[in-house]
Amino acid sequence: MNPKDGSSTTPVWAEEFSVHASEDAYVQRRQFTKFLVLTSFGMVAGNGWIWLKALTAKERSAWPQVVIGRASEIQAGTVRFFSYPEETDPCILVRRTNGEFTAFSQKCTHLSCAVYYAAERDRLECPCHEGYFSAANGQVLQGPPPRQLPQVTLEQRGDDLVAVGVTTHASE
Amino acid sequence: MHGYEFYVDPSRCIGCGACMAACAECDTHRGASMIHVDFIDRPNSIATTPMVCMHCVEPTCALVCPADAIKQGEDGVVRSALKPRCIACNNCVLACPFGIPTVHIGPDLMMKCDMCYDRTSVGLRPMCATVCPSQALTYGPPDVIARQRLARATDDFRFGNEHVKTKVFMMAPESAPVIAVNVEDYMEKGPDESEGWILDDAGLG
Fold it and tell me: What are the φ/ψ torsions at residue B163 (nearest 5 degrees)?
C-alpha cells in the first residue's frame, strides 16, 4: 500500500492522489505531452475555424436605405437613437453643435459599451473605460478602443435623413 | 539540528497545558491549538498525556482523505490539511488510530500538529517541546535520549491487526518494544451483548 514504491500492487488512486507532497505537483512526461498535443490541436482547430469563417463571409453588397429622422426636428447638440442595418445594431445619430449630422454605431470598439454624445465637449464618450471618439468621423481621441467607431453614411433627402451604408475600419 | 527526533513521554506529563498554549500562539493558526492534552482515565486518575501527531510513515489520515488535502513532506512530517482543499468531512478524525486530527468548525478545516515544520526545517525545536517544563515532549538527538531516559523509545504500534510505524517516538517501558492495543477493548458494545449501549435514563425500556 506504500504509494511511493510504484509497484504493481499500488492501487491507481494511491498513485494519482499520492500522500506525498512532492508528488502532488509532479507532472509525468506523458501527461505533459498529452496536454501539449491536445492544446496544439485545439489551437489549430480554432484557427482553422476562424479562417473558414473569414473565407465564407460575404461582403454586404446592398445596404438598406432607412429614414431615421427629420432634420428639422433634431436640435443642435442632441441625438437620436436608431438601429441600422439590423434591429440588433444600435446606432446613434448626432447633430453636432455646429449643426452637422453624423451617425455611428453605438457600440464602443473596446468592449461594446454604449457610447453617448457629450455635447459640451463635442465628442462621443464611452463611460466604461473613458474611451473618447471624435464626433466628426469616429476616430479614437483617447482610451483603450483599438479602432474608430463604424460610421453610418447619411444622405439628406429634403428634410429626411436616410442611412445608406456603414463604413467599418480595420485596427489602427 | 537535523537528525533530531521527537519524543513523547506520557509518564512525565503534568497536565499543565503549556504545550497547547504555546501551540496556539503560532502566527499561522493563532488562537487555535493544533495539539491537545488528554486525560487517560478521567474518573479514576489525574494522569494526562500530550497528544501531538505521531506522523505515521503511512499516514492513515492522508490515505482516507477524499479531498487529497493531507500531505506528507519529504521530511516525513504529515502536514495539517491544506486550507483550499479540506472539506471538513471528518474522515481523518475517524481514521486516525491516535485520535489526533480535529475539525475546527469556524473555518471548516481540519487542523493537526505538523511538528512545526517551519521551525524544525531551520533547526528550531517545535514550540511545544520548547515550553514543556517536564520535557514530556522532547525534541533532541536519539543518543542523548537513550542515555538520559530509563524508558525506551518505540515507534512501533499495533492496533488490533493494524501495524503502524511512526516518525515520532513514544516512551514505553523497556519490556514493551511494540505498543499493542486491543481495539476491541475500546469499542462500544452492541445491543445484543451484555453491556447495553443505549442509554435508558428515563426507564422506558
Answer: -105, 120
- In chain B, the largest separation of any two C-alpha atoms, in whole Å, equals 62
Do the bridges between strand A90-95 and strand A101-105 make them parallel or antiparallel, or are there none, so unpaired?
Answer: antiparallel
Do the Cβ atoms of B74 and A21 come within 8 Å?
yes
B115 touches chain A (CB under 8 A): no
Q: Assign B131 to helix, strand or coil.
A: helix
A93 and A41 in a common domain: no
Q: Is A170's pLDDT higher than 90?
A: no
Cβ atoms A169, A148 nearer than 8 A? yes
Q: Which of B10, B6, B39 is nearest to B114 (CA)?
A: B6
Interchain CB distance below 8 Å, B72 and A21: yes
Range of the domain at A16: 12-56
Q: What is the CATH number of domain B5-186?
A: 3.30.70.20
Query: Is residue A103 within 8 Å of residue A91, measured between CB atoms?
Result: yes
| Domains of chain A: total | 2
Tens digits of residue pLDDT in B93-126: 999 999 999 999 888 999 999 999 989 988 899 9
